[in-house]
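Predict both folds.
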Amino acid sequence: MTKTHARLTPLADSLPATVPFVGPETQERTRGRDFAARLGANENTFGPSPNAIAAMQAAAGDIWMYGDPENYDLRHALADHHGIAPENILVGEGIDGILGYLVRLLVGPGDMVVTSQGAYPTFNYHVAGFGGVLETVPYKDDHEDPVALIDKAAEVGAKLVYIANPDNPMGTWHDAETIQRMIDAVPDGCLLVLDEAYIEFAPEGSAPALNTDDPRVIRMRTFSKAYGMAGARVGYAIGQAELITAFNKIRNHFGMCRISQAGALAALKDQGYLAQVVANVAEARSRIDQIARDNGLTTLPSATNFVAVDCGRDAAFAKAVLDELIALDVFVRMPFAAPQNRCIRISAGRPEELDVFAAALPKALAAARA
């Protein structure tokens, strides 16, 4: 009998069968019980606008139809929101989906790609899946290092260089001037992938002005974070029209569910609710910082919907704290690369979820220290 792996391409056959993140549902099945606080996946536990929920409920009756393959209404609404042309916007299945399309479009076997060591693993997953060669640079003072990223891209002749601003997993950020200098320094033949998934949470002046005529950068935004619609899988890219049009060569044209499109459109219109969520998240970040300090720990400044809590020792100790929190029914995650893996990462949850975390953390620390 022919073995399945014999039919795989050599590239696919060489890759491990892994996922970038183990979901909380998988952990709950393994543990045999649910988490009391779901604070590990950078989800917005305050949820979407009630208007978005109503719009999705109304669209459910039409689910027998495919979604609009051009995402016309949502693209035009986003264009109006940002003051740019619809031709400069691509809608896709979350930033993860768009990153996959981008890598498929631009990276072939042996092509060089640059990112930070310990940055978003799903991007790396896509690069490996299409045969790209990943080069990494270390963080600098718990921030991604724009100068080092650009220098490495020039050194290796990279096709893509990736940075998230604000950053995942640390939550730190750079100002608009720093990011613009990075864009201006992109080497010939390279494209900067600027992941702005958390930009709605960032201080004013964190995002450079949108310049859709600049071929050196493509910017990624999402409805998963501030808009509270992670499960709907709606992301979008902003870039030069020629590049955006090229996605039509390879994207899944019917990949966007019409329910998701309707929800995103309603969420975008409800900027008042978005402002309230941003305020709720800021309050939750302050609460996490206070909980950490009450237990003798410190936190990193965050412009996202999560906070990196510095456990004060090494990765082994942080992992022990994480394991003890999970045993106490608190789902959290941690960065995977040193030295950032001295931290655990806590989502900016609702007050009742942070109450659970506040009660569990001293017990987890005591058990880890023992």
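Second protein follows, with its predicted structure tokens after the sequence.
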Amino acid sequence: MSPMPARHVPPKKRQWLLARRPVNLNKRLHRNLVRERHHVPSLRTAFAAALLFTASPALAQQLTPEQTAQVDKIVADALSSSGVPSASIAIVQGGRIVYAKAYGDQGPNLKGPSADAKYQIASISKQFTAAALLLLENEGKLSLDDKVSKWVPDVTDAGQITIRQLLSHTAGIQDYWPQDYNFAAMEHPVTPQEIVDRWAKKPLDFAPGTAWQYSNTGYVVAGMIIEKASGTKLLDFLDAKIFKPLAMHPIDQDKAIGKGFPQGTHRFALGPVRSAKPAADGWLWAAGELAMSASDLARWDIARIDRAVLPPEDWQAQETEIKLTDGALTHYGLGVSLADRGGHLEVSHGGEAVGFLSSNVVIPDQRFAVVALVNADFGGAQEEITDEVADLLVPVDRAPATASLDQTRDALARKVFDQLRAGTLDRSLLTEDANYYFDATATGDYRNSLSALGDPVSFAAIGKARLRGGFVNRNYVIQYKDRRLVAVTYAEAGADGKFEQFIVMPR
């Protein structure tokens, strides 16, 4: 998982450091995040271009040839621009997996890119932890509105916190892994109780229900409740209730290290890509316990689309946005981020493990999902991939942003300037007086003198528009490599007002 236990990558708008907790670094700094992995000899900074395009398909490709080429280019561009070594993706359309493929260099533990390779998915695991509690509620073994004190009484103010608040990050319990790196204690194995003892017994960061703050610690407490209520180990419960019914084959991420598994990587600033040393056992557990292939995660996404394995009301509960006590929205349900995408619900989450990043996006009513897993905790390639694949295959009609009046007039001024230097003046844009001014001599001099300068470096407004003589005055500085000009314009009011004056002179 992540250097911070299973980082969550919140909704898109999803900047890439939002992996575990709600931190907006920049869906591309991602559409962008930070990640890490296991210590092995350093990987080369530059990976042969061929590796970026070498891929091993896991399933029959069922996209059109044009779509396949575009998806492959999206992934190759994301890896090339970020320096991320490899990616594994899966795409669901019409409620079935139509494409699964691995790209690039998964490290020395694998012979070539394999779409079956298990990447650490970090905080994407949280929705499985939440699903386990929903299933236990169905069995009558607990209620999500139970107070935590019924199950783990030694948590601070446990009598004021509900299980639902643990799952929605509204409990106020301090996060034990806010850093984007492994801190010293992570060199040593840890138990859930030891995490609780160190972090969950501190004073709450806020009164339960009054704020939203990503907390891996809350999910460790949730995992402890699962084991107490079910009488079984967390992963055994998930295997029996979810993974086997869906033919999924995830494993404990602590064991997804070494031969047969992708090598996690990280970078220090813009330095070489290096192999990442994983955290010791136990640090991610119920906050980010799983490693799986992209296709395995896609099978879970299909279950969400089909409302399978869990009763429909449980899926609905997971996808219902939690509100704070003052009515403020959190854009989060139970282990998943929620957003509106062109009028359709988008259910998503990201993950950050040591050396790994992941992004999972589902649009249930469009029967679409896309998964991207990468073996790097830098670069934000995973969100770039899921964002662009979603835009390609489930495009959203976005109304073009309405330009302001000043923007419209500035663009028109640039158009007239370009016409003057090309000798192609559109006289319908000018008033009667301006047409008088631009006689054959004026237009010839404008064309000859301006065209000789080539293209300007910039054309920018100076100051604010102002009224004068019944016209609107807007002025522009026109920058060339070795000189600067100024354009002084007057125009009729409104977006379509004709120019009364357009004089260009040295500045």
